[in-house]
Write a structure and sequence with these properties.
Elements (H helix, E strand, L loop, with lengths): L6 H26 L12 H14 L13 E4 L19 H10 L7 H8 L2 H20 L4 H11 L14 H12 L3 E9 H5 L2 H5 L6 E13 L2 E12 L6 H9 L5 E5 L6 H8 L6 E6 L15 H9 L2 E4 H4 L7
Parallel strand pairs: 1-2, 1-5, 2-3, 5-6, 6-7
Antiparallel strand pairs: 3-4
Helix pairs in contact: 3-5, 4-5
């Protein structure tokens, strides 16, 4: 029969077991814990990379410290900050405008993009890309003053009580914007959607004022109506803010390369501005949202995996909706 341990040995064994239990509890707590700043993000390598980056560039005296004046973050909007499937939000409020334009001039309905829109041909609309979307919007609002068009677009996106009904933001991205601003960042939007459209709700949806919104611009004309100077929307595009068109827009609006850029997988439209950020002197961070969660949002990819390939080549961080986000939308 084995000898019973003496009282001293028994106490030592109890102490060792207690320490082991405490370590196990702390470890399990750490695994389950999420960042207080980003509660809708899972505790993953991506979240860690974001927080580590912000810590490095805000640590005074550190090798990667970046002054507040250079803490610029730029985000794409459709598919990055808000849902873009089954169709971009910019198309929702313009149905009546297009129908009115066609009623006034039936030949408009013969244009391929307009015809696809009226038929509900989503595949054709997707193939038309940003240029097609802007053609639709310019057709719907041509001839209106900027003030009228902005008010009309904004009203169509809001319910009777003034709440946004036609825009669906991602909760993790709203938290990221707040987190960055709390650490001295100035946050901008650089979208392929028309500037006029995005400005109509940017402050209400994201807390980003109109002067920090970049987008596709329509030709406008200075004129006078009812004794008052006005800018009137034309029916053509001035600048498509997509792909290689985004870095020049950023340079013109900000005058420096962004420290952090966020885009998403769909058409490769955000890779140019992500590379523009990456090639700045000093540290930088690029986030590519990957729509891989069919259960909670949509799952879609590019046929040639251009954006994911660029992320691997240039070291962009891929944000998996499925794995990195604990919550996709606010309750």
């Amino acid at each position: 029969m084995p000898a019973r341990p003496d009282r001293s040995t028994f106490r030592t064994m109890l102490a060792v077991c207690a320490i082991a239990l405490v370590i196990a509890f702390i470890s399990s707590t750490l695994v389950l814990a999420k960042s207080p700043a980003l509660p809708s993000w899972n505790d993953t390598a991506t979240t860690t990379a974001i927080e580590d980056f912000v810590t490095r560039i805000t640590t005074e005296g550190g090798p990667d410290f970046v002054p507040v004046v250079d803490r610029i973050a730029v985000f794409d909007m459709d598919g990055t900050l808000i849902v873009e499937k089954p169709m971009p939000a910019a198309l929702a409020p313009i149905v009546d405008g297009i129908k009115a334009a066609v009623a006034k001039d039936p030949s408009i309905a013969e244009r391929s993009t307009i015809a696809a829109f009226l038929k509900g041909d989503r595949q054709a609309l997707a193939a038309a890309g940003e240029a097609g979307m802007v053609e639709l919007i310019s057709t719907a609002i041509a001839g209106r003053t900027l003030d009228e068009a902005a008010a009309d677009l904004g009203n169509e996106l809001r319910s009777a009580d003034g709440k946004l009904a036609g825009v669906k933001p991602y909760q993790p991205m709203l938290e990221l914007i707040d987190y960055l601003e709390a650490n001295g960042f100035t946050v901008w939007i650089c979208s392929g959607s028309p500037l006029l459209f995005t400005r109509s709700f940017s402050e209400q949806a994201f807390g980003i004022p109109v002067e920090r919104v970049m987008g596709t611009t329509l030709v406008t004309k200075f004129t006078e109506r009812d004794g008052r100077s006005q800018l009137v929307v034309g029916d053509s595009i001035d600048h498509i803010n997509d792909k290689e068109g985004k870095p020049p827009t950023i340079n013109q609006a900000i005058g420096k390369r962004p420290l952090l850029v966020g885009g998403n997988v769909l058409s490769g439209g955000d890779i140019a501005m992500m590379r523009y950020s990456r090639d700045r002197d000093g540290p930088s961070l690029q986030l590519l949202i990957n729509h891989d969660d069919a259960a909670r949002e949509f799952a879609y990819a590019e046929p040639d995996n251009f954006s994911l390939g660029a992320a691997e080549k240039y070291g962009f961080h891929v944000v998996s909706m499925k794995d990195d986000w604990a919550t996709v939308f606010a309750p």
